[in-house]
Amino acid sequence: MTITIALPSKGRMKEDAAAIFERAGLPIVAVGNERSYRGRVEGWDDIEIAFLSASEISREIGNGSVDFGVTGEDLVREGLAEADRRMEIAARLGFGHADVVVAVPEIWLDVDSMADLGDVAADFRARHGRRLAIATKYWRLTQQFFSGSHGIQLYRIVESLGATEGAPASGSADIIVDITSTGSTLKANHLKVLPDGVILKSEACLVRARKQAHEGDQRIGRIIEAIRGAL
Amino acid sequence: MPLINMPDFAAKLLDDFAARGALRIDTPVIQPAAPFLDMAGEDLRRRIFLTESETGESLCLRPEFTIPVCLRHIESATGTPRRYCYLGEVFRQRRDGENEFYQAGIEDLGETAIAAADARAVNDAVQIIAGLLPGRPLAVTLGDQAVFEAVVRALGLPGGWQKRLIQAFGNTAQIEQILLRLASPQPVTGFAPDLATLLGGDEAALIEHIDRTMQETGYSTNASRSPREIATRLKEKLSLAETRLDGTALLLLCEFLSLELPLGEASAALAGFADAAGLSLKGALAGFEERVAALADLGIDLSRITYRAAFGRPLDYYTGLVFEVTRAGDGAVLAGGGRFDRLLTLLGAREDIPAVGFSLWLDRIEQARAR
């Protein structure tokens, strides 16, 4: 069986992932030219590298069509239902740090916790004739966090695929759930992160698809050990 | 439209409904999703089957009947009272059981004799199920949102806490969390010095400050929460944090929530609780007693009904009665019902329309019949 590892196809993520694989003794070479979307690991004939976009990687992990992937934990947890049943985080790679957070307008002086937000949400429809609107591209994480962890039911998600931070000021939503690394974009848009509103501390991870075929395959353990050893 | 996968007792059920004066109403299987998500909350999203129209409207497969029936009633602008019934397939993503199954039920819209309508809903549900499951004893659990709200109000808890508790009624874990936090309130600190000064002053200055800041930072003052709303809640929150809560109030609330007894004894027990606690629950208790009397008038065996004080549904349109029918000694809910006086105005009705109804889980009834 060939083991397929999906790696980010471009940008910082691609370079950082390649550097770790190099240090782990798994140097990656592109098949064909530099822009090829396929690669291999020098000295490991039975490993295949597929260069994919980060969100595709999480989907392929979910399908089990690749064995390993390097992608952000946020994408895996957002993209896959019952993520922990379908994948395992084999190693946290120490780059691509970003938090998925609940952020509200700074001027909401009375809101400093999820409990405050729950109160505001409960009253919202009576006051405004509509539910509290949350702009986000993280549907699943938002639902799990609001409904599951904090018992907040009364809100509506407004899908936002870009410039989410601008939604509260523009009036298209009241608050946001978004990913932030430095918080500077949030600040520039006069938003504050709720102290207990950090949904996920994400970073790039080596993710393994939970597959029956992996049991008893020593190469799986060796790859994981090699990557962990390089961190 | 007879479907071959319909339960074999569907025709009998429709006869039962007709005999009870209910008018059958049909609603499309494909429904706009927004009313369901607005009423039940976002969490419903992962439990319904969503799709989109070509124009981008969010649609779903009918996950239940109450909202479509109410919407249809509002649309058709007929007078009240109306007694509707329905029987058809609903679609939900469930861990256990099929994703599509049949439900049937009755909704009484606009019946102003509240206690009598409540009693009739419970009685109809029980009688219909008893007819389908002859010889098998049934159990009914009954709760009352109005009694819980009356207790919370009478306890004199601060307004914000009352709202939290009422909102969470029916969700045991959340109620426990709130009680825990009530027992050890957290002080509010960490305001910037200039704001701290404003907080000591009058509300107008605070509103003015918030208004100005919003304008300077490019936030509309009327698209979302207004400066006044923020200022008022901030003041409320501060006073809440300073309130030292009375330990007895919490004990009383816990005592109330643990009440569970045959309905025939419930009125006396509630009156006794109110007396001993020194709480005035008159209006809610009168309504409760009236309903018990109406149930007794219909000849239902009150010892088969259990009143459980903590039983409710954490949905903000439920206002009074909630009930469930099961087989005695079995957890599977065969019928669920309740009073939802707030739903029709939330869905856009111009005037208040009191409403009560119940829904039968035909797949579970079918299973119970087979056993």
UniProtKB/TrEMBL annotation, chain A:
Catalysed reactions, semicolon-separated: 1-(5-phospho-beta-D-ribosyl)-ATP + diphosphate = 5-phospho-alpha-D-ribose 1-diphosphate + ATP
One CC-aspect GO term: cytoplasm
One GO term of the biological process aspect: L-histidine biosynthetic process
Keywords from the UniProt entry: Amino-acid biosynthesis, Glycosyltransferase, Histidine biosynthesis, Transferase
Pathway, per record: Amino-acid biosynthesis; L-histidine biosynthesis; L-histidine from 5-phospho-alpha-D-ribose 1-diphosphate: step 1/9
MF term (GO), any: ATP phosphoribosyltransferase activity
Top class in the EC scheme: transferase
EC number: 2.4.2.17
Family: Belongs to the ATP phosphoribosyltransferase family. Short subfamily.
Full protein name: ATP phosphoribosyltransferase
Organism for this UniProt entry: Metarhizobium album
UniProtKB/TrEMBL annotation, chain B:
One Pfam assignment: tRNA-synt_His
Alphabetical UniProt keywords: Amino-acid biosynthesis, Cytoplasm, Glycosyltransferase, Histidine biosynthesis, Transferase
Pathway annotation from the record: Amino-acid biosynthesis; L-histidine biosynthesis; L-histidine from 5-phospho-alpha-D-ribose 1-diphosphate: step 1/9
Keyword Glycosyltransferase part of the UniProt annotation: yes
GO biological process, one term: histidyl-tRNA aminoacylation
Single GO term (MF): glycosyltransferase activity
Residues annotated as domain Aminoacyl-transfer RNA synthetases class-II family profile: 17-365
Domain of life: Bacteria
Binding residues for L-histidine: E64, F65, T66, R92, Q103, E107, R313, Y317, Y318
Assigned GO CC terms: cytoplasm
Keyword Lipoprotein annotated: no
Assigned protein family: Belongs to the class-II aminoacyl-tRNA synthetase family. HisZ subfamily.
HAMAP family: HisZ
Subunit structure: Heteromultimer composed of HisG and HisZ subunits.
Record's miscellaneous remark: This function is generally fulfilled by the C-terminal part of HisG, which is missing in some bacteria such as this one.
PANTHER family noted in UniProt: HISTIDINE--TRNA LIGASE, MITOCHONDRIAL-RELATED, HISTIDYL-TRNA SYNTHETASE
Function: Required for the first step of histidine biosynthesis. May allow the feedback regulation of ATP phosphoribosyltransferase activity by histidine.
Name under which the protein is recorded: ATP phosphoribosyltransferase regulatory subunit
The species this protein was found in: Metarhizobium album
Gene that this polypeptide is encoded by: hisZ
